[in-house]
Amino acid sequence: RLPSLNRANVRLGEPPPEPASSLQFKLQDTLKLTNAAKMVINPTYLAQRTRSSVNWNDAKRRVVHSYRDWLRSAPEVQTMYSLNLPVSTLRTKIRQEFERHRYVNQLRTVDVLLFSSHQEFQETLNFWKQTSHVLKYFRAEEEPKARLPSNFINGFLEVCISQLSVTE
């Protein structure tokens, strides 16, 4: 227990007593650090109204805007989640994710994809995800066993060939 300062233990003309140990200073420093390290949680940060695209030009403009937002935020995502990946790899993966849906030809589907993209963007930049959630996009590049073979025969042949090369 830390000593308290009240009338009973302070004599007139004497300076206040020193802290009993450096524990009080450590406690004060810890409180300062934790208050500084707390992130302000603002759930409306990056919030947008959900809306439908009026036409294809509007949808294209919204997709390009979303894509550019993701590209601009890549360095911030790298530092926030302490990723051991270069920013160029993050940007390449962002491009791959957008290219995956390049040939969608229904306007409502594009709107749903835009909504989910912005939801991911907001969750990522608000630090509502864990590092493993961000790294799930890079799992196939890191672990060769994470990808599935195209069919049973190809998978069987890959396993047989890899076992033959290990035994030799």
UniProtKB/TrEMBL annotation:
Kindly list the organism's lineage: Eukaryota, Fungi, Dikarya, Ascomycota, Pezizomycotina
Task: Write out the ranges of the annotated region (Disordered).
Answer: 1-21
Protein name as it appears in the record: NADH dehydrogenase, alpha subcomplex, subunit 6
Q: What is one process in the GO biological process aspect for this record? A: response to oxidative stress
Pfam families referenced in this protein's UniProt entry, alphabetically:
Complex1_LYR_2 (PF13233)
Instruction: List the keywords (alphabetical).
Output: Electron transport, Membrane, Mitochondrion, Mitochondrion inner membrane, Respiratory chain, Transport
Name the membrane topology term: Peripheral membrane protein
Primary location recorded for the protein, binned into one broad class: mitochondrion
Q: What PANTHER family does the record point to?
A: NADH DEHYDROGENASE [UBIQUINONE] 1 ALPHA SUBCOMPLEX SUBUNIT 6, NADH-UBIQUINONE OXIDOREDUCTASE B14 SUBUNIT
Where, per UniProt, does this protein localize?
Mitochondrion inner membrane
Instruction: Give any Gene Ontology cellular component.
Output: mitochondrial inner membrane
Query: Would you identify the family this protein belongs to, as annotated?
Result: Belongs to the complex I LYR family.
Entry keyword annotation includes Membrane: yes
Name the source organism: Ophiobolus disseminans
